[in-house]
Specification:
- With 137 residues, the chain is mainly α.
- 52% of the residues lie in helices and 6% in strands.
- It has six helices and four strands; from the N terminus they run ββαααααββα.
- The strands form two sheets. Strands 1-2 form a two-stranded antiparallel sheet. A two-stranded antiparallel sheet has the order 3-4.
- Strand 3 and strand 4 form a beta hairpin.
- Helix 1 packs across helix 2.
- The mean pLDDT is 94.
């Protein structure tokens, strides 16, 4: 019926619970809980709100991305959406982005493929895709 159901983090088997397009909280900042169900409309609304929030935060930290092709900005927003803006803020990945060292940024983003200390196939694929957007923008 298009509804989305919360699922546990693959690395922990529990928190953080995720729903929709990788959301761990709703548009009001409330954490997703086991058993939560969102309509497709709510999932789209939250995804759009959260993506805009991350875009603003990324551009505040790395304003030079405004002069880069949209794919580069999208790759960094995707990374922050998944890894968190705090992690981006202190990362070597950000230093490479800010210095426009796209090969170095590609190498750094590939290192972020672990959750709970374990290499995750899904994160590896995600980082490879984001890295290609950095290089091929």
């Amino acid at each position: 019926n298009g509804d989305c159901m919360a699922y546990p983090d693959p690395a922990t088997g529990g928190k953080p619970y995720t729903i929709g397009w990788g959301c761990t909280y709703d548009e009001f900042g409330t954490a997703v809980q086991p058993g939560d169900i969102w309509t497709l409309e709510k999932a789209i609304r939250v995804k759009e709100a959260v993506t805009k929030q991350f875009a603003r935060q990324v551009l505040t930290l790395s304003p030079t991305l405004l002069q880069e092709p949209p794919r580069r900005l999208a790759a960094v927003i995707s990374f922050c959406y998944n890894c968190g803006i705090r992690n981006y803020r202190v990362s070597t990945f950000r230093k490479r982005v800010d210095s426009k060292d796209w090969i170095g940024a590609y190498e750094e983003i590939l290192k972020w493929n672990k959750a709970n200390g374990k290499v995750m196939k899904g994160l590896t694929r995600r980082r490879q895709a984001e890295g290609l957007f950095l290089l091929l923008a």
